[in-house]
């Protein structure tokens, strides 16, 4: 009898050990197409706390199977004071494995960031509050949502049509759509930005600020993601609505993105290494973005591209 | 009847004249503000010329050093600076009026909402003091920025509680502020 109990206990322990190992082993849901654009997304990361380090470790682990070239940072890159020691403990050390392998980081400013972070070379901002860069067939626009002044709006309006790429992605700190209780969406920012996004055919928008993960159903033909929990977390802060496609607010996350042709594949992974969301988005047709531009300018809630999700 | 028409005509003319006069006053206030800001930017650039140019660097210490040196130079050049030096009483009144119009218009609810969601901060302000590194910078609603006089890139408008702050971006310095600016 005692032997039987011991055997059962040992089997249970072994099974638990095996399942833990399985959870830690990266399970990639991205297709790894040849010549695809591959990147990771983190937001509100710079706490310097163990959870940031653990999430960063998970990113490095996934990079072994999904060799992403760069990371976009959605702001609040360095919380609290910004001494050289803070840059070390809140950025350089947690992401050391990635930095050592030549992964580039492209940051935007959050409300907790000193605007002079734009001069910190590893953030690749070139000394500017807002900037653009291209990778493969994707043009990225990094914006400063803390201070969306007429000069920045004019720059965006002039630069977006010059984007000579198949995909246009904008990223900035404050979310235009969010169903997190603590902050929620910035309606005034949305009123100024979304008509420009729709007019110029922006495909995808990434934001942080709310310390949760949320994928929003397409709004005015544009795909929106909120990811503000790569370091910070507000547990159970999400109040999903009919606009929410998927949400996660019980642990830290980061995203992996792969763009190949007219498809964008994404996988959102928790600190523990489990996949909390994944899917594929089809690039919007210019006809749909034209209709969306009209709808966004008129302020309607047109959302016609949700068939891209699975 | 004729007397009523004459009275009405005179009233309209008087109202037009008042409006014209107020428009001129508004324009004069804005010109005055822009001249004061230009004067400050000149001082900022003079201070900056004394320092090595800051370009993107791997060393956060170099960024902080530059910020502190610029702050020290500017403080030294405007030791007597007081609240109201740039936002004089007349300019402040004009700003309060502009902000009031913006925040009572059709976009009022949107702007209030934006301010609330931006992580509002409360802070004792002092001209020539650095904006504290550990306090988040509240975002300024874009619709508010659209309705205020444009600024050169060396300075920006920030909201702190009900105050509107003019901040030196690179030196992270409070240049001036208007108390009770945000209704």
Task: Please write out the topology.
The complex is a heterodimer of chains A (310) and B (183).
Chain A: H1 2-24, E1 37-42, H2 50-63, E2 70-73, H3 84-92, H4 96-100, E3 104-107, E4 131-135, E5 138-142, H5 150-159, E6 167-171, H6 187-199, E7 204-207, E8 213-219, E9 222-227, E10 244-248, E11 253-260, E12 263-270, E13 275-282, H7 286-298
Parallel strand pairs in A: 1-2, 2-3, 5-6, 6-7, 7-9
Antiparallel strand pairs in A: 1-11, 4-5, 8-9, 8-10, 11-12, 12-13
Helix pairs in contact in A: 6-7
Chain B: H1 2-49, H2 60-77, H3 89-102, H4 108-117, H5 142-146, E1 155-160, E2 163-168, E3 173-178
Helix pairs in contact in B: 1-2
Summarize model confidence as the mean pLDDT of chain A. Answer: 89
Low-confidence stretches of chain A: 12-22, 298-310
**Would you identify the regions of chain B where 5 or more consecutive residues have pLDDT less than 50?**
17-22
Percentage of residues assigned to helices of chain A: 25-40%
- Our count of helices of chain A gives 7
Strand order of the largest sheet of chain A: 4-5-6-7-9-8-10
State the order of secondary-structure elements of chain A, H for helix, E for strand. HEHEHHEEEHEHEEEEEEEH
In total, how many beta strands of chain A?
13
The chain-level mean pLDDT of chain B equals 88
**Shape verdict of chain B:** globular
User: What is the gyration radius of chain B calculated from CA atoms?
Assistant: 20 Å
Helix content of chain B: 40-55%
Q: How large is the count of helical segments of chain B?
A: 5
Q: Which band does the percent of strand residues of chain B land in?
A: 5-15%
The quaternary structure here is: heterodimer
Largest sheet of chain B: 3 strands, antiparallel
In terms of structural class, how would the helical and strand content of chain A be classed? alpha/beta
Spatial order of strands in the largest sheet of chain B: 1-2-3
- How far is the N terminus from the C terminus of chain A? 50 Å
Strand count, sense and barrel status of the largest sheet of chain A are: 7 strands, mixed
